[in-house]
Fold these 2 entries.
Entry 1:
Amino acid sequence: MKLYISVDMEGITGLVDPTFVDSRQYNYTRGQRIMTEEANHVIEAAFGEGCSEVVVNDSHSKMNNLLIEKLHPETQLITGDVKPLSMVQGLDSSFAGAAFLGYHTRAGRKGVLSHTMIFGVRNMYINGLEVGELGFNAMVAGYYGVPVLLVAGDDETALEAEALIPGVTTAVVKKRVSRTAALSLTPEKSGELLRQKTREALAGRSRVKPLIPPEKPVLSVEFANYGQAEWAHLIPGTSIDGGSPVVTFQAKDILEAYRAMIAMTELAMKAAFS
């Protein structure tokens, strides 16, 4: 049995503000260490439950945050960018399930460090359904027939996951106080919880169905300003709303929609906010 793990950073235990998740800031190295330890708890529990292979994808920012020298030695790590499928790079139909660690709520929602890909995205939709990173990534997993078994993050992230994926196991490692404050477990207690929840998720995997995406999805991204939308609209095949910063793309499948979203958000970061 193979397990795929996507590890973001904003939803990790004790990480509550940009100083922990921005490589230029003073708490970042602490964040890296806690992030790596958190991944190890799930990895070790997965191997203990009979997984034969665990692949971990570093899914935050430049995607080179996890300390490979500190990871479980049997782990395979996908690290660095550019990755065509970003946070779900390497995921395919050979996996029995996926786990999303360190995840957060989508843009504009309650939750610690909530956002969707970049801070210039207000909303993102697939066929009119509002999705964030969690939902979009779960749809890519569903394209391959892979169920998301475990989601770890704050309490608001758990609610978002449970609304999207019936039967998913969630691990709440911190409770939102505000967007940049939380009531957090200690890493030791969080580790105990993550090991327990990993065992529960793998034992109950038969009750979770993949989140199947629409066959020909329409991606719509609403940006914070029109300049960002203009940059995103440089992608062939997109259309732009003349009265609002919304860029739309008709994709042949969810993988093409996902790649278009990555390209849109990368281009949008070229626009100034002022």
Note: The chain is about 30% helix and 25% strand.
Entry 2:
Amino acid sequence: MGTNFEASYHLCQLAHPFLKESGSGNIVIISSVGGLMAVPSASMYAASKGAMNQVTKNLACEWAKDNIRVNAVAPWIIETSLIKSFAISPDQKQFVERLIARTPLRRQGQPSEVSSMVAFLCFPAASYITGQVIYVDGGVSVNGFP
């Protein structure tokens, strides 16, 4: 699937004994909307993110007995240096603009909007949330992508 998926899974496996010993563990995996729906020219990326989403659900069920919660946050287009460096040519910039136009909120997300969700999932207020993939995507996952 790819090193990102494999590394994430192995890191979870390595953390398990420590999280179990803590008595109240929590893992938040960073996924992508690409794991839910088709994104042009990103088949392998999407497959690895889909696998991460499924691992989130499986580990949540397997590790609930150890009081370890596992969730994923799946962003869409977030205004980061990666997006800025990608959208340097007119064609790439136009591609990003088309993706934003398909997003119901009609804008890129901010890094703080993703980090706020990650932080929430780590707080006691989220102690009954496990096995969820939460989309921070301006609504694109409910709007669809042709």
Note: The chain has a mean pLDDT of 90.
